[in-house]
Amino acid sequence: MALFGTPPCGTGHFCALLRYVSLMCLGHIALGMPCIATKMTPSSRSQLVLTGPKRTHDPRFYEAGFMSQISTLIWKEWRTAVDTPLGYVIAVAFLLAAGFFFGNRLFLMGQAEMRSFFSIFPVLLIFFIPAMAMRSLAEEKRSGTFELLATLPVSAIQIVMGKYLAVLLQVVVLLGFTLVYPLSLATLGNIDAGQIAASYMAALLLAAFYTAVCIFASSLTRNAVVAYVLGLSLLLAVFLLAQAAPLFSPSVQNMLEIMSPLSRYQSMLRGVVHLGDVVFLLALCGAFLAAAHFQLERRRWT
Amino acid sequence: MIHSEALSRYYGNVPAVRDLSFHVKRGEVMGLLGPNGAGKSTTMKMLTCYLPPSSGTATIDGIPLDDDSVTIRRKIGYLPENAPSYSDMHVTSYLQFTGRMHRIPDATLKDRMTETGRICGLPSVMHRRISELSKGFKQRVGLAAAMLHDPECLILDEPTTGLDPNQILEIRQLIRELGKKKTVLLSSHVLSEVEAVCDRVMIIDKGQLVELGTASELASRIQDGSRVEVVIKGDARALLKALEGQLPDVKSEVLDVPGPDAADGSRIMLRHTDGGTVLAEAAFHAAVECGSTILEMRREQASLEDVFRRLTRAC
User: Fold this and answer.
1) Contacts of residue A79 in chain B, CB cutoff 8 Å?
2) DSSP label at B186?
3) Does CATH place domain B2-213 in 3.40.50.300?
4) Which three-class secondary structure state does DSSP give residue A214?
5) What is the spatial distance between Cα B102 and Cα A222, in angstroms, rounded to a whole number?
6) Interface test mutation site (partner B, options A148, A159, A299, max chain B beta carbons within 10 A)
7) How many CB atoms sit inside 10 A of residue A127's CB?
8) pLDDT of B122-166, one tens digit each?
9) What is the maximum span of chain A, computed from C-alpha positions, in angstroms?
10) This prediction's pTM
11) What is the ipTM of this complex?
C-alpha cells in the first residue's frame, strides 16, 4: 500500500512524481492501452503519424483509427441515449434529487457553499450511475448485437473504452447541469471558487470510478435489471465499507481509509487535489475496465 | 477464398464442430446445411473471428484466422442469426455507424449507403426506426449493414428464417445477385433455398462434414438405381411382360389400377439398378411393342431433401 500512501512532500517530490508516472503507466497497461509513440515523417511534417512497437502485441491497437472507432461508438451511444426516453428520465430524476439536496441545505443553513451538496453527492450517484450504465453491455449481449459489434474490425478494448466513455459523457453532461448551483450561489455571495472547482474534479473522478464499476457489472450479465442491481450492490458495498470503518480496529480502519475511493473523494472536497488520489481513482477505473474487458473476451478461452 | 482445415470447436467437452475441412472458391455461393444444433452457427462464428477454433485453422483470402483478425473482419460481411441490429436506432444512423466502424471515409459513406440501400430495397424505410420495421425489413437492414463496406466475402447465418414467402424470394434473389460478384457462405435448414441459391452444398451433422458437392451431385450420389413412374392406357400386365423381356431384373409395382371405365390408365412404378436412362428407354419400347399408350412418364430423382434426411437421420 506504500504506493498509494501519503502524498509527496518536501524533498521526496521528484521520486514521488516518478512513482506516480510509473503507476499511471501501470494503469494504462491495465486498460490495455499501448504507449503510443508519436513521430514526424519527413514527407508530411504537419501530419502526426501514430506508430508503435512492431507487432509485439496485436497490431490493431496501433492503428491510426483506434480513437476514431471509439468516438464512433460514443457517437452511436449518444445518439441512442438522446433518441430514447431512458436518458431523459434519469436526467430529470437526478436533477430533481440534486436540486432538492442543494436547495434544502442552502435555505436551511443560509450559507453560500456547496460542501453539503458534495457530501451527499456520492450517495446520489450510487443510484443513478448504475441506471445509466446498466444497458451498456448487457443489452448488446441480450439482443445479439454484441456479436455484430465484436465482428466489426474493432478490438474488445475499443468496445469497452467506447462504452465506458459514452456513459461517462452522459454523467459529465448531468454534472454540467449542476453548474447552475455554484453560478447561482456566486450571485448571492462570495464562493470559494477553488474549492468548488476541486469538488467538481473530485465528483468527476468519483463518477468515473462508479461508471467503471457499473460497466463491469453490465459486462457480467445479459439482463439490464440484473446489471443495475449488481452495480448498485457493488457501489453500496464500497460506500458502506467506508461508513463501517469506525467499527474496526485502528489498523484496519487506516487500511480502509487508504483503500476507499470515498475517502479520496472526501479529501479532495477540502480543496486539495493530490496527485495520489487522482491516480488511485484512475487506476481503480482501469482495473474495473480491465475486468470488463476480460469478461468480454472470456468466450475465447472457455 | 475460405479454406478450412480440420476446424474444431468444443464447448467445454461438448464438440460443436469437429474436423471440418472445406474450401469455398472465390465468387462461389456455398450453402451450409444441417439440422438444428449441427454446428452451422459455430462454424460461422469461427470464420468471422468471433470465436477462436479449439483446434485446426482456416484462412480467409489466404490470411489465417489467428494471424490478423482485423484484416479478416474487413474482408467479411457477417449477418448473424436472427439479424440483430440496434432497434433503437434509425436505419440511416445504424448504417452510418457500421460504415464508420469500418472506417469508410464520410465522403464515400453516403454513396455506399444509398447504393446498398437501393440494392437491399431500403429507400422507403431509410428514416424509420429499426424497431418499427417488419422482420423482412430488419433482415434487409442487417444485410445492408453486412455489405456496406463492400466485403469480398459474405457470411450469412440463416438469412431467410422468419420471413414470409414473398420476402424469402426477394432475399434469395438478392443473394443470387450478390453471389455473382462475391463469395457467399450461407447457412440454412431450408433445403429448397439452398438448392435454389447455392452453387455447392455442404451438409454437416453433429459437427462433422457428411457431404459436399453440387445439389445434383449429392442427389445422384445417394440415389441407388433409377426410378420411373409411368401411367399407361392399355394392358399393364402385357407391358410388364414386354419390359421384362428387355430388362430382366426390373422391379415393378402397380400403384393404381384403373376403375371399370378405365379412362385414366394404370400407374406403375418401375425400379432398376442402373442409374442412367436405360429404364425409361426400355419402358418406352415395351409400350410400343405391346401397343399401349403412355399417358405420363416421370423419372424420379432424389431431391436434396432425400439426401438431407438420409444423411442426417438420427442414428
Assistant:
1) 89, 93
2) E
3) yes
4) helix
5) 26
6) A148
7) 17
8) 899 999 999 999 888 898 899 999 999 999 999 999 888 777 888
9) 66
10) 0.79
11) 0.77
